[in-house]
Amino acid sequence: MLLKSLDEIQEYIEQNGIRFFNIYNDNFQCRCGCGEVLLDSELLEKLDYLRSLIDEPIKITSAYRCKEHNARIGGKPSSSHLKGLAVDIFIPNNHYRYKVLDNVFVEELFNRIGVAENFIHLDIDENKPQEVCWGYFN
Ligand SMILES: [Zn+2]
Q: In angstroms, what is the span from residue 71 Cα to ligand 1's centroid?
């Protein structure tokens, strides 16, 4: 289910027992200040489960992006961030990265994964190649 406003996200959180995320602490909206937001509830469910498994906070550094903001920061025009189907989460250290990837693979939580130095991109876009893990190399 595609959630299309902060109210819809909060309502989903309250009605479906999402434990670790809420609209007050977690930046689901586009970062440019446009106020727009899209978030697939399946992505939220998976993040909440991942959070319970790693037992450490998850800081979302990028969730939904409007077209303009995505272009401005150099995102691909086809980015899953535009559809509410991807998030980037902050990776503070090597052990945290290991725990995230370990649980993502063991639990088969995501099969589209991008690994950067300080974030991991988690993506549920079914209209793109599955079982892919890429790096952000310069
Ligand atoms: Zn925006």
A: 10
Residue type, 84: G
CA of 109 to the centre of ligand 1 (A): 28
How much distance in Å is there from the Cα of 61 to the middle of ligand 1? 14
State if pTM tops 0.90. yes
Residues near 114 by beta carbon (within 8 Å), at least 6 away in sequence: 120, 121, 123, 133, 134, 135, 136
pLDDT digit string (tens) for 85-106?
999 999 999 999 999 999 999 9
| Domains defined along the chain, listed by start | 2-135 (3.30.1380)
Residue that the structure tokens 């309502």 belong to = 11
Cα 57 to ligand 1 centre (Å): 25
Q: From the CA of 63, how far away is ligand 1's center (Å)?
A: 11
Give me the amino acid identity at 41.
Answer: S
CA-nearest of 95, 102, 86 to 47 is: 86
> CA 32 to CA 45: how far, in whole Å?
25
